[in-house]
Amino acid sequence: MHADLDHLGDANNAPQSDNFYSLLPKQSHSVKDEILQLTFNSSRPHDLVSISLYMDASPGCGGIAWPAGQILSSYIVKKAPEFFQAKIVLEIGSGTGLVGLVAGVLGAKVWITDQAPLLDIMRRNVAMNGLGPCVTVAELNWGTDIPPDIPRPDIILAADCVYFEPAFPLLVQTLVKLANPKTEILFCYKKRRKADKRFFSQLKKHFTWAEVTDDPDRAIYNREAISLLRLCKIDRGQNQVNQNK
Ligand SMILES: C[S@@+](CC[C@H](N)C(=O)[O-])C[C@H]1O[C@@H](n2cnc3c(N)ncnc32)[C@H](O)[C@@H]1O
């Protein structure tokens, strides 16, 4: 756990905008055996996505629901469900699994992944939401080979994965291994420190990116230094195919 990772749930008294808090449920860093009920509104009235989320901060920072994960979840719910239908989705650094669980509700075949200590929380959340048929939990450590049972996805989701500088090259390597130039990558990022720019200077050797502009909540979370990016792997022709093998 990286103690200096600021969490908006901890900052209920901090001078952040009321609008932003209306996007997020309250929670605290000392969460232990807590179940959060989250409901996300779709663009179509009466079409809500509800998730029960078991949280436990003791195995690491991923055991609670981070704002970037909630923002990414909220965005994918607002996108037409067709975006996920019959798609293979892989979430990296899933923590509780929230974003991947939402993608599962929306009709995707999903893999939620993280380091070993988080897997039990994710399994519990899959079971609690009855998503066993469409959401698989798997260990995926950034920078290591992709286990053979994890498929190459159509869509990669990542929320709040840029916070620990030694992991920057590992995260880039994993994105490189998983993606091809057609892979849709939604990357929700909270800027915390100047060093974060080193992640982006490593990323730009392999990916281009642009801010997602069709999210009506964008201005609210941008004010809290959170951005939602769409990454695109640079097409290097035949080399690309060899690299992904
Ligand atoms: C700040 S949490 C975000 C969790 C979740 N995506 C969310 O938004 O609530 C960062 C996550 O990245 C995971 N992580 C960090 N380093 C990792 C690594 N080397 N390999 C795989 N996952 C890692 C952590 O275990 C944690 O779950």
Question: Which features would summarize this protein structure in a list?
Answer:
alpha/beta, 9 strands, about 240 residues, disordered N terminus, 8 helices, 7-stranded mixed beta sheet, two-stranded antiparallel sheet, globular, binds S-adenosylmethionine, Rossmann fold, about 25% helix
Please explain how this structure is put together.
It is a single chain. The protein has helices at residues 18-22, 67-78, 98-105, 119-128, 168-178, 196-203, 218-222, 238-244; strands at 34-41, 48-55, 88-92, 109-114, 135-139, 155-159, 184-190, 207-211, 226-233. The chain contains 8 helices and 9 strands. The protein is globular, with a radius of gyration of 17 Å. With 245 residues, the chain is of the alpha/beta class. It has a 7-stranded mixed β-sheet. The protein has a two-stranded antiparallel ribbon with strand order 1-2. The site of S-adenosylmethionine has 23 residues, from helix 2.
Per the CATH scheme, the topology name is Rossmann fold
Examine the secondary-structure arrangement and name the CATH architecture. 3-Layer(aba) Sandwich
pLDDT under 50 segments (min length 5)? 1-15
How many individual helices?
A: 8
Alpha-carbon distance between the termini?
Answer: 33 Å
- The coarse overall form would be globular
H and E string = HEEHEHEHEEHEHEHEH
Overall radius of gyration: 17 Å
In short, what is this structure?
It comes from Amanita thiersii Skay4041. By secondary structure, this protein is an alpha/beta fold.
